[in-house]
Amino acid sequence: TAIYIFSNFFCIVLIAAVYLSIMKSYLVKNTVIGKILLEAESGMLSGVNLAGCSASGYHPIPCPAGNVGICREDELLLTRASVELDEYFHGKRTAFDIPLKISGTPFQELVWSELQKIPYGETISYGELAARIDRPRACRAVGMANHCNRIMILIPCHRVISHDGTSGGYAGGLPVKQFLLELEKNTTRLNQR
């Protein structure tokens, strides 16, 4: 009987540990492009999306406290991410210092890693991005990986445009993409003076 009780207790502790390790914390932030939902997990930022928009398209993103405020731990990380995003939107930050929890297929993670190498204020084409990861014929797959990016702005998929110079697509909508590109272009121009 003691072994049975111990094994049940061990199972409950194990389940609780697994549950706590995958819990997410949230912060909804008002910005110039609308409300952004920040997600943190295990001390790393795991999501930055427009509220009502996710990497798989436009639909509400669930957040346990009615989509307002911080829902659980990781408060310092979410606050720091919020401050860095404010600095970005005010043209005072061109790179982020937040640890990211990137989760996708190996191909997506390769694309997202390369996206982080695109300098602030610059753009490249989907074809150039595909070539940079040694997959020159994978332009559409690169576009889909961009679409699945869950950490907008910090993983700057908005800096990838069509080969003809047009905006291409953006999970957050083309007006948001245009705004981000203009913000970076104008900030770069001001900093060069």
How would you explain this protein's 3D organization?
This protein has 193 residues and is of the alpha+beta class. It has six helices and five strands, in the order H-E-E-E-H-H-E-H-H-E-H. The protein has helices at residues 2-21, 75-89, 106-115, 126-132, 139-147, 174-191; strands at residues 25-31, 34-41, 44-50, 124-125, 160-161. The strands form two sheets. The protein has a three-stranded antiparallel sheet with strand order 1-2-3, with helices on one face. Strand 1 and strand 2 form a beta hairpin. Helix 4 packs across helix 5 (139-147). It starts with a helix and ends with a helix. The relative contact order is 0.13. The model is unreliable at 13-21, 54-61 and 63-69 (pLDDT under 50).
Features:
3-stranded antiparallel β-sheet, 193 residues, 6 helices
Topology of this protein?
Layout: H1 2-21, E1 25-31, E2 34-41, E3 44-50, H2 75-89, H3 106-115, E4 124-125, H4 126-132, H5 139-147, E5 160-161, H6 174-191
Parallel strand pairs: 4-5
Antiparallel strand pairs: 1-2, 2-3
Helix pairs in contact: 4-5
Number of helical elements: 6
What's the total count of β strands? Answer: 5
Rounded to the nearest angstrom, the distance between the terminal CA atoms is 78 Å
Helix and strand element order: HEEEHHEHHEH
The secondary-structure class comes to alpha+beta
What assembly state would you assign to the polypeptide chains in this entry? Answer: single chain
Rounded to the nearest angstrom, the radius of gyration is 19 Å
How do the strands of the widest beta sheet line up side by side? 1-2-3
User: Biggest β-sheet: count, sense, barrel?
Assistant: 3 strands, antiparallel
Q: Kindly report the average pLDDT value.
A: 83
The backbone outline, from C-alpha atoms, is: globular
